[in-house]
Write a structure and sequence with these properties.
single chain, binds 1-O-phosphono-alpha-D-ribofuranose, binds manganese (II) ion, metal-binding, isomerase, Phosphopentomutase_DeoB_cap_sf
Length: 421
């Protein structure tokens, strides 16, 4: 039975990418800076203490991959002499450092074109766009209209939102239009309907995602975002390996945010879960009922949403350790023909300035499918993962990427790799 399992640790970068300076991210290193903060006692909080302890990821080659990416060993961590898995680091061809670009490139489809962005920190959105939104949705107006961190802006404007019925609109360095509204005071279904209107109005602006950000609570001190976030993404620019597998009769199980991120293209079955333990439980359950030629793909979003963007270094360290502790359960379920890939979609260094993603290498930790333990080297695109999945699942080759599997017969072009920037 041939299966592939891809776990995306959302935002778990392992060192600045070669083009990081273009994003003001030269020197960013999500893993390295978390490990260093642990050695300084800065992550001794909420019950966790000491050096960063990731014994299972270490056995899969995480720290070897980080060393290859940055030239330095992560501080204070225990590194096994050899790894049981194949490990490498990959750079991104896509123009942006956002979640859809990263995921689509992982699935074999880099985004070479440029997204639209709302660059102004204040008055970020065109007046005619907001006017159309207010008119079509019958709103008394909107609040926000700026770059913001989602938790900060609901604390700042949430009470005014509840009093006025005006939703809060904001953006970031990503190609996003986000709408925050109170689940009860404004209404969840009303928020989703509003996002549909925004999705349509944003078509001329080439914006990657509209995101519904519902929250609950009585006042600024108690507002909290809920698990009912919903992403409205545009479709990938070409068929991903998910779509190819689905169309070729295989099975694609999308766990957590995966289906939203791929705009529901190529998904056989969607499993929603909230929180990393529930996401891991769902992944393990999916492995109990998958059939031949299946891909199980899970996004672990809290690394990014709850810790990375919040610049919560201690929380990120604790979340990594909790994730690591669950890995043996997953490894125990793998069969001889399974390919496991652990990776990330971009960085979000919690020690970095601001609250945005960071342009970093991602880890490529692979196990099974005849892979020998050891280095996969520096990969020129995240799409090497997608190409390897295509090889493993017996699909025709993707246009981008080079398979790292031993039977790599489907190595294709890097010829496109320089185009389009
Ligand atoms: O600060 P919050 O609302 O979590 O927003 C973050 O989440 C968005 C989508 O991943 C990113 O663009 C970033 O702005
Ligand atoms: Mn992401
Ligand atoms: Mn993010």
């Amino acid at each position: 039975m041939t299966r592939a399992i891809v776990l995306v640790l959302d935002s778990f970068g392992i060192g600045a990418a070669p083009d990081a300076a273009r994003f003001n991210d030269a020197g960013a290193d999500t893993l390295g800076h978390i490990a260093a903060a642990c050695t300084r006692g800065q992550c001794d909080a909420r019950g966790r203490t000491g050096q960063l302890a990731l014994p299972n990821l270490a056995r899969l080659g995480l720290f070897h991959a980080h060393h290859a990416s940055t030239g330095a060993w992560a501080e204070g961590v225990a590194v096994p002499e050899s790894a049981i898995g194949a490990w490498g680091h990959a750079r991104e061809l896509s123009s942006g450092k956002d979640t859809p670009s990263g995921h689509w490139e992982i699935a074999g489809v880099p985004v070479r074109s440029h997204w639209g962005y709302f660059l102004e920190e204040e008055n970020s959105f065109p007046a005619e766009l907001l006017e159309a939104l207010v008119r079509e949705a019958g709103l008394p107006g909107v609040l926000g209209d700026c770059h913001a961190s989602g938790t900060e802006i609901i604390a700042r404007l949430g009470e005014a939102h509840m009093a006025s019925d005006k939703p809060i609109v904001y953006t970031s360095a990503d190609s996003v239009f986000q709408i925050a509204a109170h689940e009860e005071a404004f209404g969840l279904e009303r928020l989703y309907a509003l996002c549909e209107v925004a999705r349509r109005l944003l078509e001329p602006y080439n914006i990657g995602r509209v995101i519904a950000r519902p929250f609950t609570g009585a006042d600024a001190a108690s507002f909290a975002r809920t698990a009912n976030r919903r992403d409205y993404s545009v479709e990938p620019p070409a068929p991903t390996v998910l779509q190819k597998l689905n169309e070729d009769g295989g099975t694609v199980v999308a766990i957590g945010k995966i289906a939203d991120i791929y705009a529901h293209c190529g998904i056989t079955r969607t499993v929603k879960a909230s929180g990393h333990d529930a996401l891991m439980d769902a992944t393990l359950e999916a492995l109990d009922d998958t059939v031949d030629r299946s891909l199980v793909m899970t996004n672990f979003v809290d690394f990014d949403m709850v810790h990375g963007h919040r610049r919560d270094v201690a929380g990120y360290a604790a979340a990594l350790e909790a994730f690591d502790a669950r890995l043996p359960e997953l490894l125990a379920k793998l069969g001889n023909d399974d390919l496991l890939v652990l990776t990330a979609d971009h960085g979000c260094d919690p020690t970095w300035a601001g609250t945005d993603h960071t342009r970093e290498h991602i880890p490529v930790l692979a196990l099974g499918a005849g892979l020998a333990p050891g280095s996969l080297g520096a990969r020129e695109t995240f799409a090497d993962i997608g190409q390897s999945l295509a090889t493993h699942l017996d699909l025709t080759p993707m246009d981008d990427g080079t398979s790292f599997l031993p039977s790599a017969s489907s190595s294709t072009t890097l010829s496109n790799a320089t185009g389009g920037h």
